[in-house]
Fold this sequence. Notes:
Elements: H1 3-9, H2 11-18, H3 26-36, E1 44-48, H4 54-64, E2 76-81, E3 92-95, H5 101-110, E4 116-121, H6 131-152, E5 153-164, H7 169-179, E6 180-188, E7 197-205, H8 225-228, E8 245-248, H9 283-290
Helix pairs in contact: 5-6
Main location: cytoplasm
Binding site for S-adenosyl-L-methionine: 53, 55, 81, 97, 122
GO biological process, one term: cytoplasmic translation
Amino acid sequence: MGKFGKDKRDIYYRLAKEEGYRARSAYKLLQIDDRFHILDGVKRCVDLCAAPGSWSQVLSRRLHGEKIDNQQDDVKIVAVDLQAMAPIPGVIQLQGDITNHSTATAIINHFDGDHADLVVCDGAPDVTGLHDIDTYIQAELLLAAVNITTHILKPGGTFIAKIFRGKDVLLLYSQLKIFFDEVVISKPRSSRNSSIESFAVCRNYNPPNGYEPTMFNTLMDGECEKYFDNVDNQKYLTNRQIIPFMACGDLTGFDSDSTYPLNLDENYQYHEPRQMPIDPPYKKAIELRKSSALSK
């Protein structure tokens, strides 16, 4: 598919380039914020699994606003990812592993010892096409994000993360309810209907009495029991939770599963992607293909 074909196929991909976002996923966070107002009053924010940085761009634009250039406001945004990212105005970048305690410590240090008001995570594994495997790996990533969030999020804070709604997703809902008083599953308009992805909007961080944050995966079967045997937390004993599901985004707006025509007249201007990957894992394969060394 050529450049024009991709613009025609995906309206949010085209809009992202026109409005300066690095990826179409920016509109998912924009629509979540428009529906739930998660950025109201936020001063300290963390973007986990941030690359290529579209969510960090949204956070910077909405939290810094017009002060993004002079940096005189008291907003601090930390973006964390294993991969290197191109700089984003108003965002502190941290290259690290979210499963390491040192990463949590570095985040707190950037906040001068304070905790975050909001933690977001749009991370996802490279899908295999095998839905059960993809859902399991995504759940592992989500739980890792929850673990580090218990170190860096203040009581009453908000956590947003991508979730795959597989057949065993009710267990994940119950595990999230351990730490948050309110859990809502949201499906932005910019997320394709053909995708099983949604986003968990978790508000009012309230860990169980006696809970001590740890980088061990306390939510996995067989692991969490030893942490909660002595905790008065009846919510954990109920595996089946009724979790609200809400769509967000203008229902009369663009449909991410539709194809929109391009006005290919003399005024049409193709926009290149705003930020190409710095060191993608497929870089070597591209070089081999260009040199005709890659078997077809």
